[in-house]
Amino acid sequence: MNQGRICALLLIAAVLVGCSSSGHRAPIVERGAAARKGVVAVEQAQKKPTREKDWRPEVHVVQKGDTLYSIAFNYGFDYHELAELNAIKDPRVISIGQEIRLFPGRQNASSSAAAETRTSEPPIKDQPKLVKYPYSEAAMAQIGKVQEAPKPRPAAIAKVETKPRPVVTTPVVSSDDSDDSEEAELDWSMPAEGKLIGSFSESANRKGIDIAGKLGQPVVASAPGKVVYSGSGLRGYGKLVIIKHNKTYLSAYAHNDQVLVKEGQSVNRGQKIATMGNTDADQVKLHFEVRRFGKPVDPAKYLPSGKS
Predict the structure, then answer these.
(1) Concatenated DSSP letters for 34-77?
(2) Alpha carbon distance 263, 234 (integer Å)
(3) Is it the case that residue 94 has pLDDT exceeding 50?
(4) How far is CA 200 from CA 219, 226, 299, in A?
(5) What is the pLDDT of residue 105?
(6) What domains, with CATH codes, occur in the chain?
(7) CA 39 to CA 37: how far, in whole Å?
């Protein structure tokens, strides 16, 4: 009995020695290192800049005091495009409560989808109506003739060979116009020389910066683009020039004495567009704004450092 126990113990000891000498160990999971890697990944993701989405609605309802010029300015559009999109012949004439579409094709998408759904539904066919006849030998004979009559052969169905429709691709037209990119990098410069007398403040509703100067001194385009407005139709801005740089940004130059550019004209960075004045202002100055999707942003973030 003792010999059997001794043999069993020796066998167990041999198995344990063999397992330890095989070199296979249970994997060690470094949970602390994995957790640290996860924290680093989250921190790196948080550091990446996030782009603000386009906040603009599809339709603007005209309120009291609105003009097509102000609507286009506040949403970052060319008023000519809004007038054409909404079939407005005279941009000076809009009415309170009127809906101004801001984007082409967005509203028609739902209606066209609904129309396509309606046309795709199969037509409902009327079933043949049953007619009751009184029983008679003549009626039975007539029914027998109808049943014995040869059934008309179905018309031969022509086989239509369906060919796959060619895929039509719209070519991408490359151009030097910065409107082709929503977030194109722009090389901004100071719009005028002078002393900064007013800074941007969202809380105080100061939508740009004010630069004091001399009457008649040059006002230049801060970045290349197209003139989308030139006139004095926006209250509080005097003689105003608005330049659209791409699908995202536009800039405004207010209180000018003389405007030297026309609507639709393309301008380069540093090109003279007006002379400084005091129209609708208490002193000679340039009020300069930068707008992203029509929303005023701090021009100091875009202008050369140390000059604003």
Answers:
(1) HHHHHHHHHHHHHHS--PPPP---SEEE--TT--HHHHHHHHT-
(2) 15
(3) yes
(4) 19, 24, 7
(5) 74
(6) 59-101 (3.10.350.10), 195-301 (2.70.70.10)
(7) 5
| pLDDT score at 123 | 54
Out of 31-35, 142-146, 278-282, which region has the weakest mean confidence (pLDDT)?
A: 31-35
185 band by pLDDT with thresholds 50, 70 and 90: confident
Q: Look up residue 255 and give its amino acid.
A: H
For the record, the structure tokens of 162 come out as 């369906």
